[in-house]
Each structure stands twice: as C-alpha cells, then as structure tokens.
Amino acid sequence: MNLVPYILGWSVLGIVVLVLAIYRSMVARHEDDSLHVMAGEAPIIAEQQRLGKKVEHIETWGKTLTAVLVVYGLVLAAIYLYHAWQVSNSIQ
User: Fold this and answer.
1) What CA–CA distance (Å, rounded) separates 73 from 55?
2) Where are the domains of the chain?
3) Could you tell me the pTM of the whole model?
4) According to a count of CB atoms within 10 Å of the terminal CB, is the N or C end of the chain lower?
5) 39-53 pLDDT tens trace
C-alpha cells in the first residue's frame, strides 16, 4: 500500500494552511483596535470595516482548511494503522 501521494497532498494542504495563517497575520497587522466615532473619521471607519471583513474571510478559510487538514491526517493515520494491523495479522 503506497500512501506517499496522499501524504504529499496532506503536506501541501498543511503548507497552504501555514501560508494562509501568515497572510492573515500580515493583513491583521494593519488593523486599528481604536474606536473611531467622530464624523471626520468616516473614511477610517470604512477602511477598518473593509479590513475587518477581509480578515474575517481569511479566517473562515483558515478554520475550514485547518479542519480539513486535521480530518485528512486522522484518516491517513487510521488507514496506515489498519494496514499495519492487517499485515501483522497475516504474518501469523
């Protein structure tokens, strides 16, 4: 049983999740945590809302892909362990 292609796919998915986390961190670095309520600060408010929506969108993808990565890894581990168990039982 050759799991190498599946492990490579899992690794690529892990790299994608890592790159997405770094990208989210870079985008969120420009986020302003201050509360802007003055009328003259309307452009700042609009920009921060756009930035917040962008970070939220990236975060949604990050959470989804992380869950897929974990489930994919658990399935690969289960397949490997089942195969190892089958091989050890067939030797006896």
Assistant:
1) 26
2) 4-31+41-91
3) 0.81
4) C
5) 777 777 778 888 889
